Amino acid sequence: MEAKRSLWMFGLEADEPSYETRAAAAARLSQRLGVEVQAPRIPPVESLQLREPRIKPPASLAAFCRQDIRDRAYHSYGYDRVDHGVWGDYPNPPDVVAHPRSDAELEAILEWSDEGGFCVVPYGGGSSVVGGVTPPEDVGPVVTVSLDALNRVLEVDSTSRAARIQAGVLGPHLEDQLRPLGFTLRHFPQSFAGSTLGGWIATRAGGHYATNHTHIDDFVESVRMLSPRGWLETRRLPASGAGPDPNRLVIGSEGILGIISEAWMRIQLRPRFRATAAVTFETWDAGWEATRRIAQAKLWPANLRLLDPELARSSAGMGSGSALLIVGFESGELSQRSMVADAVSIAREAGGSVDDAEVRVEDGSERPTGRGGAVGAWREAFIPGASGGSLGGLAGLGVVAGTFETAVTWDRWPDLDAKVRSVTLDALRATCGGGSLNCRFTHVYPDGPAPYYTYVGARPQGLKAADAHNAVKQAASDAILACGGTITHHHAVGRLHRPWYDQERPDLFAQVLRAAKSTLDPGGILNPGVLIEP
Amino acid sequence: MEAKRSLWMFGLEADEPSYETRAAAAARLSQRLGVEVQAPRIPPVESLQLREPRIKPPASLAAFCRQDIRDRAYHSYGYDRVDHGVWGDYPNPPDVVAHPRSDAELEAILEWSDEGGFCVVPYGGGSSVVGGVTPPEDVGPVVTVSLDALNRVLEVDSTSRAARIQAGVLGPHLEDQLRPLGFTLRHFPQSFAGSTLGGWIATRAGGHYATNHTHIDDFVESVRMLSPRGWLETRRLPASGAGPDPNRLVIGSEGILGIISEAWMRIQLRPRFRATAAVTFETWDAGWEATRRIAQAKLWPANLRLLDPELARSSAGMGSGSALLIVGFESGELSQRSMVADAVSIAREAGGSVDDAEVRVEDGSERPTGRGGAVGAWREAFIPGASGGSLGGLAGLGVVAGTFETAVTWDRWPDLDAKVRSVTLDALRATCGGGSLNCRFTHVYPDGPAPYYTYVGARPQGLKAADAHNAVKQAASDAILACGGTITHHHAVGRLHRPWYDQERPDLFAQVLRAAKSTLDPGGILNPGVLIEP
Fold first, then answer.
1. Are A451 and A405 in contact (CB under 8 A)?
2. pTM here?
3. Higher pLDDT, B383 or A183
4. If contacts are CB pairs under 8 Å, which of residues 408-447 in chain B contact chain A?
5. Which residue has the higher pLDDT, A194 or A142?
6. Which residue of A has its CA nearest to B503?
7. Chain A residues close to B485, C-beta within 8 Å
């Protein structure tokens, strides 16, 4: 029942590197950054001293509530500040962690919290990188409600290709339940192994598909959410034009309006036909220009990932200065041969080089294409689970490493990219004495890309790591907003992105959101400080 | 500046049939229905006696406000009850019709109305079939705000393929402004000639594309709306994951939260490549089963219209009992030859017959395919402007004719179709002594179709036409809701669909919508009775 997410790195406990592995990685990093980095000893969870719980659930709730050190430490953070785990720093753990196993238990814990005025933090996989599941300070007792016991696929409608799924299911367990029926949700965010359906819906997660239907939003047929005022359940429909879409109130609500308990999701036939191509470009600019043309031709590839020269070099072994574009198509029904040919043709017209050996077509097999060559190298570096994600090699070193992302229209993209690179590298120099930055497109739309940046700086000497993080994040986020981007394409707002979200969203919309919250959560107990002020 | 919409039929004044044409049509209809139908004489607008205006705008607003008979009669109804025009029946016209020409004038008329507590009805093209622009009764003075003077494309971003467009532009005028630049919005609802961008956004209109991105929702990049509390303007973005999508509050709000003044819309390259096929099926069931398979294969045809045997016979000259499926692909960049071949292959596997002469591919020309044969006959019957729409031949006869539509998941579709046909024909028999009903799919999703029904009954003898309409509508709508459909896929809610919308949408969502309205329109002046109670 308990997810084995690591307390101090992105990924699972089972994938945690040993002290020796971390020490060797630290030595390599020292050389790369020119600054000495040492691997700290990480305190075992059993040795932690946590604040005593300020409340105790009544006997009627005891069967599904926990207050032990492990569970409270585990639910103290998402992934936003995993370095806290490195240092054993847990100043504000939740007082109670509830694991309801039924609608009735979910209602009971919410009712008890509402009556007591206890803050409630809904908790899926805990992969938030924006403080979305962090217990707020100065609000009194905190009850974290983990959905981990509500983790089943309840019903599958094979005719409509849809499934009713409980919100607390982790990605791999969800796929395990659909696979025997020949279906897949095909939503694979980088956090896949450690995030849940409910979390994806609450945060508008971006997933597997690089074009067309990218966000989880597009796969929600209906949703069920418990607010302190009761259940809000939408009708199962393929589409509707009846008033503002009620699903869209729930999707992206980040736990401030209610706790999502289940959803009918559009599912896919498992792909048997695939086609992939790798295209190289002499420059970054040529790469994104070709990517724009492919997106605007509406071929809707499942994969359209563009790597900048820095990333193409470090993760796919590309020659200096070249950008790499991975185009991939997949289908449960039809050969994708002509699709990939069309994409390659556009890419070549736009100046891309395609080695014929890097165009691979699989018809009628479940085996993915592109296991070798540049695509294969990229898969190894990026596919969740393959190596612990893009920051895997830096785990547990206490360095200043992180990611941020946005989406912007094409007309503003070149300016945004230039400005973001400039201010982020400046901030890394100022706080860490230097560092590096790379960019890839995770998703692409006809009217603009969703660029994803990864930065690394050494551990700052005269500064707390959190302060260095904040300085880099501040500089990058200010530039993104100033250049017309969104503060988040798929990492959500949480608490961390609030200052920029407050600029981005219309003031009157914030007022409507507050009115919605007052309606559904009159006591203001749900996730205060997320999205809007408490 | 003034739209020449007919006062008494679906379509434009220029297309109104003469009395003689209507008399001949009445004779033919009498024969078809077996009930005598006579064409009434329609009173000229100049002869109408309207209630005196109850308010007079101040001099500062006079330059863009009108109170003449023609303008007030014109803005008394949408398309929902065009038979009122046939009888010259205008009991509740607006008191003032404002035609603001700028943001400042829009602000001024809304401020004057808010201060006076006058009801405001935002008015686009007036094509509402659900009472969305009808002045409500018993609310005191009514100011209808027509957006017809705000009708320009203000800006085009060719790189991102997006345009900033004023809300009051009618479909054809919008296309006229984009055409010289090689672009098109490609949103062609059947009301195209007489509806506006703002109306499409406010009502979540369904348009040209039969699959993938079907509703106007998908083409809105950002939107600008004036509420009594001020402007709500969203950021131009290709996508975002920052909180609940603010665009989705505006889209579908049907004039109760504010007046949409402009939007950045995603536009398309004008298509040069097309491919079309016509497929016949021995039965209706075989037709929709094949349609389901094509939709689920995610080829995303622009056109995937399925006609039931009744409609295939009457509008496309098909043999008795056969269903007709029109599949069409289009692109500005790429040949659609392999796409149509894939679709035909799926259709044939599912039991469809395709004459090779009915598979047409045009590469590199702007000329649409399918001018002849079954597809051509269908085009003539259905494309807006070609013949005044599906009810064109019945215009001005005072018969009970109308349409309704829904969307439903595939698992529930067969039951819904059977029930809807049965109760609708029963209602036509009871009120009109008989009638006919046909169905087509206007839009198709992987998880379900959007069926569109057209019914015709003779003019009822012992009953008002409006009462007969209501009886048919009531029976059909009850069946739709009971069988799991939505009360509207793209005709909106307005006032007419309120009883069923109230059942369909979650109660807590209605409470949130009321809270949103109280926030943006504290005086409750905007379109009272639409979507939620006044």
1. yes
2. 0.94
3. A183
4. 408-411, 443, 445-447
5. A142
6. A235
7. 237
φ/ψ of B65, rounded to 5, equals -115, 140
d(CA B118, CA B136): 11
Number of H helices, E strands in chain B: 16, 18
Encoding tokens for residue B117?
Answer: 């507590």
Amino acid at residue number B268: Q
Contact assessment for residue A492 and residue A215, using Cβ atoms and an 8 Å cutoff: no
pLDDT in tens, A10-47: 777 888 899 999 999 888 888 887 878 888 889 888 88
Q: How are strands ordered across the β-sheet holding B259-266?
A: B153-157, B162-166, B259-266, B220-227, B230-233
Q: Under a CB-based contact definition with an 8 Å cutoff, are residues B440 and B425 in contact?
A: no
Contacts of B204 in chain A (CB under 8 A): 240-242, 245
Provide the 3-class DSSP secondary structure of residue B239. coil
Establish if A34 touches chain B: CB-CB under 8 angstroms: no
Q: Chain B: nearest CA to A439, how far in angstroms?
A: 18
Interface check A24 vs B, CB under 8 A: no
Nearest to B391 by CA among B443, B444, B325, B457: B457
Map B264-288 to HEC letters: EEECEECCCEEEEEEEEECCHHHHH
Subunit contact B492:A157, Cβ cutoff 8 A:
no
Please give the pLDDT value at position B348: 97
Give all domains of chain A, ordered by start, each with its CATH number. 13-146 (3.30.43.10), 153-269 (3.30.465.10), 273-365 (3.30.70.3450), 392-493 (3.30.300.330)
| pLDDT score at A378 | 57
Q: Which of B161, B211, B205 is nearest to B185 (CA)?
A: B161
Residues 286-325 of A with CB under 8 A from B: 292, 296-300
CB pairs under 8 A between A and B: 283
Cβ-defined contact of B296 to A269 (cutoff 8 Å): yes
Interface contact A87, partner B, CB < 8 A: no
**Residues in chain B where the model's pLDDT stays below 50:** 1-2, 383-390
How confident is the model at residue B214, as a pLDDT? Answer: 96
Tell me what pLDDT residue B390 has: 43
Q: Which amino acid is at A467?
A: D
**Alpha-carbon distance A406 to A449, whole Å?**
8
pLDDT at position B389, please? Answer: 42
B10 or A167, which is more confident: A167
Given an 8 Å threshold on Cβ–Cβ distance, is A516 in contact with B516? yes
Distances in whole angstroms, Cα of residue A456 to Cα of each of A40, A67, A406, B358? 18, 36, 18, 59
| Token representation of residue B98 | 């404002």
**Lowest mean pLDDT across A251-260, A515-524, B428-437:** B428-437
The SS3 assignment for A107 reads helix
- CA atoms of B347 and B324, how far apart (whole Å): 11
Indicate the residue of A206, A239, A516 with minimum beta-carbon distance to B407. Answer: A239
| 3-class DSSP assignment, residue B258 | coil
Residue A111: per-residue pLDDT:
98
Minimal CA separation from B459 to chain A, in Å: 30
Cβ contacts (< 8 Å) between B488 and chain A: which residues? Answer: 240-242
Among B157, B254, B509, the residue with its CB nearest the CB of A249 is B509
Residues 6+ apart with CB under 8 A from A63: none
The answer to whether A19 contacts chain B (CB < 8 Å) is: no
Who among A227, A252, A448 is closest to B241 (CB)? A252
